[in-house]
Design a protein that fits this description.
The chain has about 120 residues and is mainly alpha-helical. It has one domain: Death Domain, Fas, CATH 1.10.533. Helix content is about 55%, strand content about 0%. The protein has helices at about 20-30, 35-40, 45-55, 60-75, 80-95, 100-110. Helix 5 (about 80-95) packs antiparallel against helix 6 (about 100-110). The longest helix has 14 residues, at about 60-75. The radius of gyration is 16 Å and the shape is globular. It comes from Macrostomum lignano. This is Death domain-containing protein. InterPro entries: DEATH-like_dom_sf.
């Protein structure tokens, strides 16, 4: 007998994966370096498309990073959150952004969003 009050497994999104967190992360990651996005398995065509659009509209360089991280999140829809967070952590570390990976891991551990103030250190 199945209970009608059962909730779907997907209840609450991890705070480090919210749109706000990914937009803030997009400002903090190494700009102009495509390695992160390639490690996240974003198609090269999409990476180039976002970079070209960014230049066409004379947007700040981090605009492409933000759009690519949001695209990646959409691409991973349906995957387990722990896998998504682990992949983000691995891609950040492998692209030489260990400090940012540490921040993402710490914020995930305490279930808090990524905020710009975390990246203002010297």
């Amino acid at each position: 007998m199945e209970s009608q009050t059962e909730q779907p497994e997907e209840q609450k999104e991890a705070r480090v994966l919210t749109e706000t967190s990914l937009l803030n992360l997009g400002k903090a990651v190494k700009q102009g370096d495509m390695k992160l996005y390639m490690l996240l398995n974003i198609p090269t065509v999409e990476i180039v498309r976002q970079k070209v659009r960014n230049e066409e509209f004379k947007m700040p360089e981090y605009g492409a990073a933000q759009k690519l991280l949001l695209y990646w999140k959409k691409m991973r829809k349906g995957a387990k959150e722990n896998d998504i967070i682990r992949d983000l952590d691995n891609a950040l570390r492998e692209s030489g952004q260990e400090e940012i990976a540490d921040i993402v891991s710490d914020r995930n551990r305490i279930d808090q969003e990524i905020v710009p103030e975390l990246f203002v250190s010297a």
